[in-house]
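Dear V.,

Thank you for sending over the compound details. I've combined the ligand you provided, calcium ion, with the protein sequence from our construct and run the structure prediction for the complex. I'm sharing the raw inputs here so there's no ambiguity about protonation or stereochemistry in the SMILES, which I know was a concern on your side last time.
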Amino acid sequence: MTLQDQMIEMIKVYKHYAAADGIQGSLSKDELATLASEQFPALCQNQKKADILKGIFGEMDMDGDNKISFKEFVIFIGCLTIALQESLCP
Ligand SMILES: [Ca+2]
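Below is the predicted structure of the protein with calcium ion bound, written out as structure tokens.
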């Protein structure tokens, strides 16, 4: 799988979860919670998951409109990827 394929996959993942409430193009808090539980299962086994998700949503929602745009999603995934790289290859 090429990096371009993985980027297309990321776009598909965003669109899939963003469309769950019938409003495409943004992730609500509930949609983000579903995405997190299905795509980041280890995080969601944490007992403080609700607090963690609330904090993550606040960090992701950079313009404060209470929804996550694709741009906000991609920036956050980029930050997560940096954190993952640092944890795997310190
Ligand atoms: Ca936003």
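A first observation: Residues 29 and 57 are 7 Å apart (CA to CA).

Warm regards,
I. M.
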